[in-house]
Every structure is written in structure tokens, then in C-alpha cells.
Specification:
By secondary structure, the chain is an alpha/beta fold. It has a domain of 101 residues. It is 20% helix and 33% strand. It contains two helices and eight strands, in the order αββββββββα. It has an eight-stranded mixed β-sheet, with no helix packed on it. A hairpin with a 6-residue loop joins strand 5 and strand 6. The chain is extended and about 85 Å long. It starts with a helix and ends in a 12-residue tail after the last helix. The model has no long low-confidence stretch (mean pLDDT 85).
Amino acid sequence: MGAVVLVVAGLFFVYAYQASGSEKTDTLEYHATFDRVDGIIKGSDVRMSGVKIGTISALDIEKETYLAIISFKIDKDIKLPKDTSAEVVSDGLLGGKYLALVPGGDENYLAENDTIIHTQSSVNLESLIGQLIFSNKSEKPKTEDQ
């Protein structure tokens, strides 16, 4: 009975390893710099047109400019035009965040370890709600004639 349990556990681990995509080594690494990357963590998705094409491999901060640097790996079969843009996007109202790549129209492609220049940082939902709430305070008070 113990041997059966070990065989089933071994099969489970083999299946989990294959399903996780950890065996993929055919990836290329790229970088992008942002003002803010709220909600992005190592292992977050990299998507293009809504399809997962890679994962975030590292987050760091540039010591001179204090910008956030995202390093990510994508499938080597996907070529990124030089004018590709990257943006931190929310996966629904309460969902996590991911890095969305929008390919450009340039005929030249980024090389491995190149940096994407065109980026858009994450939107802070709390500050947007605060702006919405306090934006009505600037209206003039109504007088009796109105």
C-alpha cells in the first residue's frame, strides 16, 4: 500500500512540474523601466493581446534615477519590434497586475537583454478615487438666484 502511495505521489509531482512550464528554457530576457510598478511581483504574467507569453523574472531599482526595472522572459519564438510598448495593467477590478506588451510596427526587432523604452506605469486606484471624491469641491456654491 505504501508503494502505491509513493507511485501516485511521484506521478502527481511529474504532472505538476510539466503543467507549471518550468521546463521551458527557450526564452529571451528583456527589461523595461517604470515610474511605479505597484502590484507586480516576480512570477507575474507577461501578456500580449491577452495571451500569456512569459513571466516576470526580476524587479530592481535603478540607483541613479530611482526608476523601477522589470526584467522579464518571453518565448524565444516571439520577436518584439523595437517600438514595442509595455504597460502595467490590472486584471479586472480586484485582480492582480500583469505586464502587457503592445507590439509596434517597426521592422527591426529588439535583441536579447534590450530595454523597452515606451512604458506606462501602473495606475494607483486609491489616488484616482480620491481625486474623484475631492474634485467636486472646486465648484462654486449655488446662490439663491440659481
